[in-house]
Design goal:
alpha+beta, 12 helices, Endonuclease, Chain A
């Protein structure tokens, strides 16, 4: 599988084998990896294009670049592209808000199965209607950031409706709630007797699923709800349900202590390394994880000292080389 860094798992294995077996030829590498020689040659060409191997006096005619240098260079080449993409995502948030307002003023029947709601009152009225009619399960991802008190109060009323109806509910919230006593108090107000609440370091979107037949995607501005899309299109709700399932499998039950990960990294440390390698700035990473900028910078200092890195790019490269994170994490 090709990753966002342009290197698949076999090319990575070839590269690491060359590092471990200096001077090895194609035949020896193929035997080591149990792959065909032609396949190894193809991956060598790919590694050469990525400047992870360069001409050298070896059996292959190539030698591997030091991981701390080669991987840092790869990350540097990705930085500009990923930063531009991040700006496009932020612009898209504003565009969605504008479109919601325009659709609210126009016809609500312009797209079958999709409702456009403008204003917090309209959003929470519709969410309450769905909760009162929910028969099987209520799934929530998010919110993706700490919200204003009125939003929390509105969400609490939805929880009360679900408890009164006895509706099965599962929620995935941000890992940062564990460090916020007030947020933990709100989360613990939910019924977690069957492990129905899990956490992740960051979340892709705020989504509410009712019986997997309706998906509500709130739009947030300045920590307040300004609108939402309510979608009853089966293909869309199925996609959101699949997203919830994947995130649920990765998430950690709220009742469990946070474990250490590969290389002795915490989940928070591992995740911030991923976000940096994906091109996010400290400020963007802090927003995604809903932690303070000071927290992210403290993590940066701690990780830089731990890996002995001289730059952010080298930090990401060394983290990959030493197994703290994997190339496949850069998606």
């Amino acid at each position: 599988m090709r990753t966002s860094l342009g290197i698949d798992s076999l090319a990575r294995s070839v590269y690491l084998a060359m590092v471990d077996l200096p001077g090895a030829g194609v035949t020896e590498l193929a035997e080591q990896l149990k792959e065909a020689e032609d396949t190894v040659r193809e991956r060598l060409e790919r590694l050469s294009a990525l400047l992870l191997v360069v001409p050298g006096d070896t059996a292959t005619g190539l030698r591997p670049v030091d991981p701390g240098v080669g991987l840092a260079a790869m990350l540097a080449r990705q930085q500009d592209e990923l930063a531009r993409h991040q700006l496009q995502v932020e612009d898209s948030r504003l565009e969605v808000t504008r479109l919601l307002s325009e659709h609210a003023r126009g016809s609500r029947d312009s797209m079958r199965g999709v409702e456009w709601l403008a204003g917090a009152d309209a959003v929470w009225r519709r969410v309450a209607e769905l909760a009162e009619g929910c028969e099987q399960e209520w799934l929530t991802v998010g919110p993706t950031e700490r919200l204003a008190v009125p939003v929390a109060e509105s969400a609490r009323r939805i929880d009360e409706i679900l408890r009164w109806r006895g509706t099965a509910a599962r929620t995935i919230v941000l890992e940062s709630v564990r460090n916020d006593p007030e947020a933990m108090g709100r989360v613990r107000g939910k019924d977690d007797s069957i492990g129905s609440i899990r956490t992740l370091p960051s979340l892709p979107a705020w989504v509410i699923l009712c019986d997997r037949t309706h998906a509500v995607v709130p739009v947030v501005s300045a920590r307040s709800v300004v609108g939402a899309m309510v979608c009853g299109v089966e293909s869309v709700t199925e996609a959101f349900a699949a997203l919830f399932t994947r995130l649920w499998q990765e998430a950690l039950p709220l009742a469990e202590a946070r474990p250490r990960t590969r290389g002795g990294l915490s989940l928070q440390e591992q995740h911030v390394l991923r976000l940096w390698a994906q091109g996010l700035t400290d400020a963007a990473a802090a927003r995604r994880m809903d932690v303070s900028l000071r927290t992210v910078r403290r993590l940066s200092e701690k990780l830089t000292d731990r890996f002995g890195a001289q730059s952010r790019f080298q930090l990401g490269a060394l983290a990959i080389a030493q197994g703290g994170i994997q190339v496949e994490d850069m998606v």
